[in-house]
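A.,

Following up on our hallway conversation. Structure tokens first:
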């Protein structure tokens, strides 16, 4: 059977050496990579990474709140993640007189640790290849129902390689996760949107939580009677530091990559989708920024929105630059040409042509959907009661109206004349004479008359359009340019690739399942003749310090510590000077969702927390280029230094196992 031969090919392929440091590997299938990992400096075994029979590293890694990773660092359930992952929790506990975002938060005792409704973490209990079970006729629902063990576990069946392989993932979810500590944003988000996706970086992007369980160590809803969770496994902390060339490994939940797509899909991202979305967001950010600059209260009010909009905006720009400079689409086209030559006379001979035809068919459909999401669906139509009751709403009206006008005009410009446009939108524009005039009308209704018929018709029209586009694409699984037909074609294409390209190291695209990536600490050539070292230090923070610039306003406490050279046990000598290391670069293949992931040395000790990538290296979602793709981590020694010296929370460090 086809499936059997795929498995056979897969097994032989897995034995071949990996290319560079590309790859996000399934932990249960890591064994064939161990030799390569050991050659790079890994000292442990596959069983240390993933085991169902005994405690392994996987028991110390969690999916944190559905979009980030976290890791256990003490026998009492202490967890590290990023500041930007804990941001929502920190913000919700903040208010006048206790602004933890600005000032930081340090629980002085277990009683002061703050519960967070709706925040959960998930441990992977086990993962099983269920490809055979599915082809034997069992349904995913049946497999899931059996695995949840009467509700004790969460389970999901995830497709890998466009469905050529499927895995069952069984998770145990803990719902009592409390905030323990967070540095002030001027440390945890130092450099903010200016430095985001940029190296050299000086962000102390960490926050500390603790998982609580019932007296039997089982998951439980929040209760004051809950006790700290006792993990099967937690990471020891290395204070030895990192050097260029050292082995690094990342264990976490990468969200979404598309490594196998053809040149047409790269071209869509690089030349159609990203540029349009960047352009819309540039306009959106200009409106938000003007409001922020006009009024200090609005600067704070729009901060989270600005950060969210700017994050992808900046990422896409880096992605376009990376893809175009590295010629990814051309390389892919050449690869596809060679594949097609090879495929002559086989069952794969038409697949690239069919892929091309389907890409061309669906691009306008998918584009209409993307622009709809970026514009009309990004607006509050109508506003929630909560938004309207906000004390600052009155002051936001000109900004909000400007956003409506701009977004309506952008939707009109990109999609207005397409057959995939929202019909009701078209009628509105005709009726009021222009997209802007229609925007004014809808904005007025959105803030005054939520139940108005005209509002309702537009909202329904948008929902219907969304459903129609999905139907046209034939699939609900739409993280990227995709359709039911593309899914089938890619599944076939990948089977062909495995036969064609036997040296290639195949790993499934990221899909928010647990993965291992490994590589080394490494700088890179940023530009001709310009090498970027892999490590930053406190000196760089002081060099950026500027009380006039919000993003670079170093907290006074940190200035004082630096002035006094009071680094305690965290000071190290670098280039003949005492300092504290802050961030470092490595070659691990990561993506969104890997934020908060532990970065681990060859002995399985945590050396840092992953939080970002360099700008152009965001192309790694489509092609991992070892010359430029680097992930950015905060050095664990900086985390410990901040906890100790800025937070005065050395008792948290006492809980950890320092090596
Ligand atoms: N770029 C990182 C990631 O995609 C960090 C974002 C948070 N920081 C920020 N300044 N917005 O999530
Ligand atoms: N900053 C990203 C995250 O939040 C990580 C990345 O895209 O490299 O997951």
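Then the amino acids I'd put at each of the 659 positions:
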């Amino acid at each position: 059977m086809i499936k059997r031969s795929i498995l056979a090919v897969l097994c032989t392929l897995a034995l071949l050496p990996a290319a560079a440091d590309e790859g996000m590997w399934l932990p249960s299938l890591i064994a064939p990579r161990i030799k390569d990992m050991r050659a790079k400096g890994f000292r442990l075994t596959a069983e240390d990474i993933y085991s169902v029979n005994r405690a392994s590293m996987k028991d110390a890694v969690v999916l944190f709140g559905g979009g980030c990773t976290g890791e256990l660092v003490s026998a009492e359930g202490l967890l590290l993640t990023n500041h930007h992952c804990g941001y929502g929790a920190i913000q919700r506990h903040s208010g006048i007189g206790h602004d933890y975002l600005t000032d930081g938060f340090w629980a002085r005792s277990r009683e002061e640790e703050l519960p967070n409704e709706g925040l959960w973490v998930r441990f992977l209990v086990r993962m099983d290849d269920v490809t055979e079970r599915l082809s034997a006729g069992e349904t995913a629902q049946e497999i899931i129902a059996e695995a949840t063990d009467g509700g004790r576990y969460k389970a999901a069946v995830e497709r890998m390689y466009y469905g050529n392989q499927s895995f069952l993932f069984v998770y145990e979810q803990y719902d009592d996760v409390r905030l323990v500590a967070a540095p002030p944003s001027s440390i945890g988000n130092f450099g903010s949107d200016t430095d985001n996706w940029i190296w050299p970086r000086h962000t102390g992007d960490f926050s500390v939580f603790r998982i609580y369980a019932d007296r039997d160590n089982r998951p439980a809803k929040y209760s004051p009677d809950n006790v700290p969770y006792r993990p099967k496994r937690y990471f020891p902390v290395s204070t030895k530091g990192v050097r260029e060339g050292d082995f690094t490994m990342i264990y976490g939940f990468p969200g979404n990559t598309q490594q196998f797509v053809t040149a047409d899909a790269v071209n869509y991202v690089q030349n159609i989708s990203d540029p349009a979305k960047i352009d819309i967001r540039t306009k959106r950010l200009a409106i938000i920024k003007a409001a922020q600059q006009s009024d200090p209260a609005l600067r704070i009010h729009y901060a989270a929105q600005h950060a969210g909009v700017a994050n992808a905006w900046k990422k896409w720009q880096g992605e376009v630059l990376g893809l175009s400079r590295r010629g990814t689409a051309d390389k892919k086209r050449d690869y596809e040409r060679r594949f097609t030559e090879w495929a002559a006379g086989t069952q794969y001979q038409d697949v690239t042509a069919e892929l091309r035809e389907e890409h061309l068919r669906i691009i306008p459909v998918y584009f209409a959907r993307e622009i709809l999401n970026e514009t009309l669906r990004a607006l509050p139509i109508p506003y929630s009661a909560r938004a309207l009751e906000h004390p600052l709403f009155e002051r936001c009206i000109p900004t909000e109206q400007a956003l409506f006008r701009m977004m309506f005009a952008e939707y009109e410009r990109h999609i207005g004349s397409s057959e995939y446009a929202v019909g009701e939108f078209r009628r509105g524009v005709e009726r009021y004479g222009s997209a802007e005039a229609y925007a004014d009308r809808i904005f007025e209704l959105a803030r005054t008359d939520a139940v108005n018929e005209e509002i309702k018709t537009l909202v329904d029209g948008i929902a219907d359009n969304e459903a129609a586009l999905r139907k046209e694409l034939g699939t609900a699984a739409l993280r990227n340019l995709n359709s039911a037909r593309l899914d089938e074609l890619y599944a076939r294409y990948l089977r062909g690739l495995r036969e064609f390209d036997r040296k290639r190291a195949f790993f499934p695209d990221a899909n928010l399942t647990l993965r291992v990536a490994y590589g080394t600490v490494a700088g890179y050539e940023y530009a001709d003749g310009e090498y970027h070292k892999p490590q930053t230090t406190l000196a760089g923070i002081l060099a950026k310090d500027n009380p006039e610039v919000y993003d670079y306003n170093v907290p006074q406490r940190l200035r004082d510590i630096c002035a006094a050279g009071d680094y305690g046990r965290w000071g190290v000598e670098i280039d003949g000077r005492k300092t504290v290391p802050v961030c470092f670069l490595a070659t691990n293949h990561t993506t969104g969702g890997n934020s908060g992931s532990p970065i681990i040395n060859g002995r399985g000790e945590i050396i840092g927390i992953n939080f970002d990538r360099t700008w152009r290296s965001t192309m790694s979602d489509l092609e991992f280029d070892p010359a430029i793709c680097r992930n950015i981590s905060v050095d664990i020694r900086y985390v410990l230094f901040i906890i100790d010296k800025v937070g005065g929370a050395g008792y948290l460090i006492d809980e950890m196992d320092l090596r």
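The radius of gyration is 25 Å. Curious whether your intuition agrees with the design.

B.
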